[in-house]
Amino acid sequence: MGIISRGFAGRSREHNPELPPGQYLTEDFPVLSAGPTPRIDTDEWEFTITTEHGVVHRWSWADLMALPVETVATDIHCVTRWSKLGTSWRGVSLDTLFAGVDTSYGFTMAHSYGGYTTNVPLADLMGGKAWIAFEFDGAPLDPEHGGPARLLVPHLYFWKSAKWVRGIEMRKRDDAGFWEQNGYNIYGDPWLEQRYS
Amino acid sequence: MTTVAPPVISASNVWKVGTVASVHTESPTGRSLMIDVPGWGGNLAGQHLDLRLSAPDGYQAVRSYSIASASPGDRLELAVDRLPDGEVSPYLVDDVQVGDQLEIRGPLGGWFVWRPEQTEPVQLIGGGSGIVPLVAMARAHAASGSTAKFRLLYSVRSPQDVFFADELASLTSPNFEITWVYTRETPAGWPTAAGRLSPSVLKTATIPAAEKPTVFVCGPTGFVESVADWLVALDHPAASVKTERFGGK
Predict the structure, then answer these.
(1) B181-225 confidence digits (pLDDT tens)
(2) Do A5 and B54 touch (CB under 8 A)?
(3) Which of B17, B53, B247 is closest, CB to CB, to A8?
């Protein structure tokens, strides 16, 4: 520290308490993906939860739509430093989906269409903290933003909110997912600025 | 995307002090900077870094930038395009001078990278300042003496907007061909009219899927979305198309 960038004034000194450290506010909705955007028809879409006993809980799109839908107003924080405040989503709570799931494992690996993976502790998916979201700002979720449905875990950096989610697999250990194997933090708490490994 | 690269081990969480060694105007809106960062120790082609600016009152702003260089040692190169509403890029393009100090953290990222030991053909596709990490790959390819087939498709508004124009021209060889797409204005006497990249140009100017290339696409979100969709339609497996996007939609 102690380095001053000569002539740098910066834009704004207003500290926004809703912004985690090192984040800036954007009105845009930037896209960050590691590859092409998968195009998944809701007719062929399905979501599964797989336990250590080999039990596969399975939902079709119609099954998902038949479950109680919650409206979620939340801030989102991308590790690439943009934050978007007060975003509006609709989706099904993971509490609802896990209601009939018997597991003693404490960790999960989310899997996406296209092969993306990300690891999330089970405790971070429960207690009204995570959803399978299929609407953003009152409209069906764009494929670029993870439609038809993405995981929404907004209290962690947004790479944990796996786009094009197709399943959650129970894990005994906190194994690293895709970005977690590629230099990013195993947990990703934006308020602790856990960006990199 | 079903296979992933091994983890990149680095002291990436430590801020280091960099000193601007030289600046070079690349385009009406862009500039490249050579920065000396003691302890940097080199980076892989395609990696990025965090750059932190501090105002006298302690205010700080951090942004991520792709690295244009891939050489060993403590000197690295950035190339930055000025964003009209930007907070950090106008400072880097308009204000920063030789001898100024910046803080740097990195190198970062282990996915959008090319390693000289890779032998498969490589297709690079850049839109605008998305060329920067691809230049690093072209430089690493040349410096390593790699015989892997490389091709670059570079989509840019006009000849004045080209980053690293002379160097890219000098890097061309039987193992590194470049196709230029000018979207607004072409050089004098150019055989085709200016226009956006089309699926047919993409098909004819890039390595076909049958040769199993790894494809790196970097640019604005809309450009990358279109190109990645067309590549998949041309039978490139999604897992072999690596993308990096910037900006909203």
Answers:
(1) 999 999 999 999 999 999 999 999 999 999 999 999 999 999 999
(2) yes
(3) B53
What CATH superfamily is the domain A24-28+40-192?
Answer: Oxidoreductase, molybdopterin-binding domain (3.90.420.10)
Q: Are residues B218 and B140 in the same domain?
A: yes
Q: Does the CB of A44 have a partner CB in chain B at under 8 Å?
A: no
Question: What Cα–Cα distance (Å) separates residue A151 from each residue in A15, A154, A177, B116?
Answer: 30, 9, 14, 36
Domain ranges in chain A are 24-28+40-192
- Using CA atoms, how far apart are residues B53 and A10, in angstroms rounded to an integer? 8
Read off the pTM: 0.91
Please tell me whether the interface predicted TM-score (ipTM) of this complex is above 0.90. no
What is the rounded CA–CA span in Å between residue B214 and residue B132? Answer: 18
* Cβ proximity of A133 and A149 under 8 Å: yes
Report the candidate in B153, B217, B161, B154 with the shortest Cα–Cα distance to residue B184: B161
Q: What is the mean pLDDT of each run of 10 residues along chain A (197 residues)?
A: 82 80 88 91 98 98 98 96 95 98 98 97 98 97 96 98 98 97 95 94
B24 lies in which domain range? 16-108
pLDDT of residue A20: 95
Closest-CA residue of B relative to A176 is B7
